[in-house]
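[09:14] KT: can someone run the structure on this one? pasting the chain below
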Amino acid sequence: MGFRCLVSFLMQAIVLLLLLEEGRAQQHFYNVSRLRGRKQVSGCNLFQGRWVADSSYPLYDSSACPFIDDEFNCQKYGRPDSQYLKYSWQPDSCNLPRFNGEDFLMRWRGKKIMFVGDSLSLNMWESLSCMIHASLPNTKTSSVNQDSLHSVTFEDYGVTLFMYRTPYLVDIVKQSIGRVLKLDSIESGNAWTGMDLLIFNSWHWWTHTGKSQPWDYVSDGTGIYKDMNRLEAFYKGMSTWAKWVDLNVDPSKTKVFFQGISPTHYEGREWNQPKKNCYGEAEPLSGSTYPGGAPPAAAVVNKVLSTIKKPVYLLDITTLSQLRKDAHPSTYGGSGSGTDCSHWCLPGLPDTWNQLLYAALVM
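[09:31] RB: done, structure tokens below
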């Protein structure tokens, strides 16, 4: 066999192995029977579909929800258009059930739900709080805001939604040399035990450098480094989280989701408009594929999730969110920090993430 033929054969074999692995991974992630003990809706991938105009949206009014931070409150801060609020996600092979806040609270009566991660988790947590509040505007609520832990309790049902802020999932520890990101340490996981539903998220902060980087060194085992490849660091940190799930989660008591990679829209070349970012974008991309392809972090998540022995459901929001170049605060968040093409307006896209979470739990 010639050298070129051998290389071609090896490349084809690698691609085949990757496709087989991807198939096994998707079976693992999307298999709702592992999550709930019931069969998945036949042939339905909730995350493959398209955005359609829908005048019955949004699900709530931002001015009527007490849980929205200014950075997500686009209508309050002068966004002039509102069509971005009026789209619903339509899976190709089934219909997404409309969110019912009372039904959600009845199913989770007396239970504790926790979002764990960065400001994209905060985005989703505030969205779910608003969606439930809009369904039951007169139900009694109480809230707590601490440094890294926030909560909203719907007291008539005994349901508490927690938000635990930890952008890397793994720990940042102050040592004599400075702030150290410890890729093999996850002591903060002690705060996540005893929950009935956990929704994890991470990636957004792994790319931060300079003054916005909250650590000075990164440690991996006995090694301490000034920096390392960020995708490699993300993989190592996520692998530590995966071990935590396997060691600490009892599937008979706790359901686990991973939120998936939320995309940014700073680079218009990704959707064939190289001179643009999300500012001024007023409608989603049509169709069901994103020209720029999947972010590299999504492959890392897939790789890590394929190693977990306990059932974890991937809320695969990446592609459907990539299509929503119109849904960011851009300059209409109250933070005053320039153009935000990372987070999402509320009401808006995170409401769909929560509808998908609801669907995965009830379908």
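[09:33] KT: thanks! The longest strand covers residues 159-165.
[09:34] RB: yep, looked fine to me
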